[in-house]
Amino acid sequence: MSIQINYKNSVLKKDLTNLILFVDEKFSTSDLKKYVSNSEFSYISELIKSSDTKKDLLLFEINSKRTIFLISIKKDIKTSDVENLGAKFHGYIDYNKKNSYFVYLDTINSKIKNFAGYFLHGIKLKSYEFNIYKSKKDKKIVSINVVGKKNQISSQEKLRFKALEEGTFFARDLVSEPGNVLHPDEYAKRINSLKKYGLKINIYDDKKLKKLAMNALLGVGQGSIRGSYLVTMEWNGLKNNSKPLAFVGKGVCFDTGGISLKPAKFMEDMTYDMAGSATVVGLMKNLALRKAKINAVGVVGLVENMPGGNAQRPGDIVKSYSGKTIEILNTDAEGRLVLADALTFTEKKFKPKFMVDLATLTGAIIVSLGSEYAGLFSNDDKLSNQLLSAGEKVEEKLWRMPLHKNFDKLINSKNADMQNINYVGGAGSTTAAQFLQRFILNKTPWAHLDIAGMAFSKYGGALNSGGATGFGVRLLNKLIEDNYE
């Protein structure tokens, strides 16, 4: 089923099949007389007396062809609440099995600018499904027709919401693809296709990476028959030389754990170990589509971690792009190796205003925060507070976790500058972040988001129906909108 939104600058007709009207939080019916017949008004008014008005949405089946939905708007409602209302309404679309609905804008009474836009945005985000490999697809198209003259959504806002949806959906698509389809070679090609939106794309393949001495990243992928890549995406929306905002993503297209092989149970989920990179790619597509007035760069490291005959071994020592050496004690702690080279490269080449990296980095963050918060680690309070605020506004929540020099002793190595895992035990997510911090060489403001518990949902969330969530695209877009545009 796909959702099609049509904007109709027309007056309300009283015989529309499935009508959505907005009321106050008490479900007051006094204003409804303008929009429904007298008999319908009497019928609804009587039923409301015995209805649970603590709910956000009530539906009244007038007859087999006509249903009226009443959606309550609370006085203290937030934009994220409005999106959630749209997502809840999507559930009624599934239940009601009708093909056409009419949202009447003139009943909206809220201080929130673009209320209707957020409501429709919630419907669209919830409607996503990944079904390209199913032989029988639901080809049903549901039309959401927007009528009324008040609270019209501007063309600019329509573009903003559409760009954010497309960026989020692109990220979800990438995460949802199976590992035999979206291996690093194919992933690099898909990113390269974004050139048509105005992004400048550079692809560094094995040969170029060897020349750059990105041995930490290359080591992860050396057991695979697929190539390893570092891909950069540049968006220059300011047309000047101001420092870009930088976003870096872990792109392990499939993670077997390498020689330190993972247990078979749930290994199929490791197709989403590239979700951090998917967020970066989706964000960059969004910025290009909406012509964001910033300079930004996205950098992703794309590898496949396989236990082949040429695979990296526990005990190997590699020299990273930064020049620092790393002892590989566990080949399943591979994401930090990919990010180590990507972070140093990004800082050195682009000299960004700040760097935010995203990765499904540790299972330990799920132990700490479950699937409610992503872990935030940072060397900069200002950037941290901006991220926390943006996360609250779009309900992609973050929780700041500690970094401290005392954790360094847990990753110091006797044989190299550092080791890639803490075998003493404890603080798994923090020591991983502490490891990454060592590759920020010039004190650039930096934040690491460990999204292992947020990138994929088996049961679905407020704005997604299960599977890949696209977590981080809306969060980082909000960070940019609120602070840098």
Please give a structural write-up.
There is one protein chain. The chain is α/β, with parallel strands linked by helices. The protein contains 13 helices and 19 strands. The strands form 4 sheets. An 8-stranded mixed β-sheet has the order 7-8-10-9-13-17-14-15, with helices on both faces. Helix 7 (215-221) runs antiparallel to helix 9 (335-350), helix 8 crosses helix 13 and helix 11 packs across helix 13 (473-483). The longest helix is centred in the middle third of the chain and has 22 residues, at 155-176. The mean pLDDT is 94.
Features:
single chain; 485 residues; Leucine Aminopeptidase, subunit E, domain 1; Aminopeptidase
How is the secondary structure organized here?
Layout: E1 2-8, E2 18-24, H1 38-48, E3 57-61, E4 67-73, H2 79-96, E5 100-104, H3 115-126, E6 141-147, H4 155-176, H5 184-192, E7 200-204, H6 206-212, H7 215-221, E8 229-236, E9 245-255, H8 275-289, E10 295-305, E11 317-319, E12 325-327, H9 335-350, E13 354-359, H10 364-369, E14 374-378, H11 381-394, E15 398-400, E16 418-419, H12 428-437, E17 446-450, E18 456-457, E19 467-468, H13 473-483
Parallel strand pairs: 1-6, 2-4, 2-5, 5-6, 9-10, 9-13, 12-16, 13-17, 14-15
Antiparallel strand pairs: 3-4, 7-8, 8-10, 11-12, 14-17, 18-19
